[in-house]
Design a protein that fits this description.
- It is built from 15 helices and no strands.
- The longest helix is centred in the last third of the chain and has 44 residues.
- It is globular and about 55 Å long.
Length: about 400
């Protein structure tokens, strides 16, 4: 793998830390800026919305830039808004920095996905994607717990400073190491031509599967803490340990998926989806057992992120006609799932079904993803057979004529 890929992964690590670290800092932010905890929670919602909107928007705006320029501008802006967020005494300004940071984060990841797969051959695109997603999983393992701990020790602003400082070497490395050379757009590929790619049923179904699979992961992951304390009966101190185990599993899953996805993509997707349905279902049934919880949490992290990594690679392939929008579409789909999954989990809890309900919901969403992918694959096979039959009939008629 080119060294520049790992530099992009460093930037994704900083951005992933920023995205998830607020979950442990909201009470401190609320007290310092004199707002309620639910109001502080809107910082997380604002980031999710910015990610969904920002991926296609920034990819379109930056489509005429070289990828090095686009990545540098987006990461530089991300760095600056974190400095502003660390300095501001106003909640409204902090909220605005979260939106802008999310927009630039989404744009960076969208461009980075395309840049990463363009640096390697078709046979290595799965591994290239896994290197980038490895930055996100490392953020779950190291960055998020570290940022939360730093925030508790030195104040929540210190976590923002840490993200900004971590972005500096990544920015310098991108300017020095990522290949450049013009707009890098194939001749005749305009913005309208790329947008027409959205008409592809294959792409739309792939994006739907991405959203369902990521929604399943975030639904169960978001409510892991109350499952551990209220259902499993473990002490609160177990929560960060199990979150770290989930992160370790996620990193393992991404690495393994990167090695398998390029050679056996259908088998990997089907296997991970089936394992996800079974894993979330078994977790829902056995969540009262400490041993089962400790074993299943990292396993589900591995399965969920392996499935997500493989689906991103599939989405990039399906959107080959949109060289600048393909990564953006994948990022947007994943963040739709990240927004909808926790909402569904909260809805079933509010309906009185208890903390096991999000786990069952994760199993259901994964089953829907599997059914959608299987239906789409069956439809493609029928289409190919029908086309082959039509070509054979036409050839026979031509021979008779």
């Amino acid at each position: 793998m080119p060294f520049a890929l790992y530099l992009l992964g460093l930037a994704v690590f900083a951005q992933g830390t920023s995205e998830f670290m607020l979950s442990g800092l909201l009470p401190d932010i609320a007290a310092d800026l004199d707002v309620s905890v639910p109001a502080a929670g809107s910082l997380t919602s604002a980031f999710a919305v910015g990610m969904i909107v920002g991926a296609p928007l920034m990819a379109l705006l930056a489509r005429r830039w070289s990828r090095r320029t686009a990545l540098a501008v987006l990461l530089g802006t991300f760095l600056l808004v974190h400095v502003l967020g660390a300095l501001t005494p106003h909640f409204g300004v902090l909220l605005a920095t979260r939106v802008i940071g999310a927009v630039t984060n989404a744009g960076f990841l969208a461009v980075a996905l395309v840049a990463a797969t363009s640096m390697v051959g078709p046979e290595s695109r799965g591994r290239a994607t896994s290197v980038l997603l490895g930055g996100t999983t490392l953020a779950c393992v190291v960055g998020v717990p570290g940022g939360t701990l730093l925030g508790h020790v030195g104040g929540w602003r210190s976590a923002f400073w840490a993200v900004a400082l971590l972005s500096v070497p990544a920015l310098v490395a991108i300017v020095r190491s990522v290949p450049t050379g013009g707009a890098e757009l194939p001749a005749g590929v305009g913005a309208y031509a790329e947008l027409r790619t959205l008409r592809s049923p294959r792409l739309l179904l792939t994006l739907l599967v991405c959203a369902l699979a990521n929604g399943a992961m975030f639904c169960g992951f978001t409510y892991l803490a109350p499952v551990v304390t209220d259902v499993t009966g473990l002490a609160p101190l177990w929560v960060p340990a199990l979150l770290a185990l989930f992160g370790v599993g996620s990193f393992t899953g991404v690495v393994l998926a990167g090695r398998i996805a390029d050679a056996h993509p259908p088998a990997l997707l089907a296997g991970c989806a089936v394992a996800g349905v079974a894993g979330w279902s078994v977790f829902a049934l056995t969540a009262g057992s400490a041993a089962a919880t400790i074993v299943l949490v990292p396993v589900l992290g591995a399965v969920s992120f392996a499935l997500g990594s493989a689906l991103i690679a599939r989405a990039l392939h399906a959107a080959a006609g949109a060289p600048t929008l393909s990564g953006a579409l994948a990022v947007a789909a994943l963040n739709v799932g990240a927004a909808v999954g926790p909402w569904l989990g909260g809805a079933v809890i509010d309906a009185g079904h208890g903390y096991r309900a999000p786990l069952w919901t994760s199993a259901l969403l994964t089953a829907l993803a599997l059914a959608t992918a299987s239906g789409a694959r069956l439809g493609r096979r029928r289409s190919v057979r029908a086309q082959a039959g039509t070509d054979g009939t036409n050839s026979a008629l031509g021979a008779q004529g």
